[in-house]
Amino acid sequence: MPSWLIVFLITLGYLFASLAIGLAPGRGASKSTEGYVAGDRSISFILLYFIMGASVFSAFAFLGGPGWSYSRGAAAFYILAYASVGLVPWYFFGPKVAALGRRHGYVTQAEMFAHRFDSRAIPAILAILSVFAFIPYLVIQMRGAGYVFNVVTEGRVPEWAGAAIAYGVVLIYVFRSGVLGVGWTNTFQGIFMMALAWGLGLYLPYRLHGGVGPMFEAIATEMPDMLRGPGLAADGQPWSWGGYSSSVAISALGFSVWPHYFMKIFTARDDNTLKKTVVFYPTFALFLVPIMFIGFSGVLAFPGVVPADTILPTIVTSAQIALPPVIVGLFCAGALAASMSTGDAILHAAGAVAVRDFWGNIRPGSLSDAAQRRWIQRLVVIVGAISYALALIPGLSLVELLLLSYGFISQLFPLTVMMLLWPRVTRPGALWGLLTGGLITIVLNVFPTLAWGDIHPGIYGVVGNVIMMTIVSLRTPPMDASHVAKFSTTPAPHPTTQVSSA
Amino acid sequence: MNTLEHASNSRVPASVYKAVVVFYVFLFLALMWPIYPRFASIEPRVIGLPFSLIYVIGGLVLSFLALWGLYLWEEASDDDIKATEPEPLYQSNQGQE
Question: What topology does CATH give the domain A3-404?
Answer without folding.
Answer: Sodium/glucose cotransporter (1.20.1730)
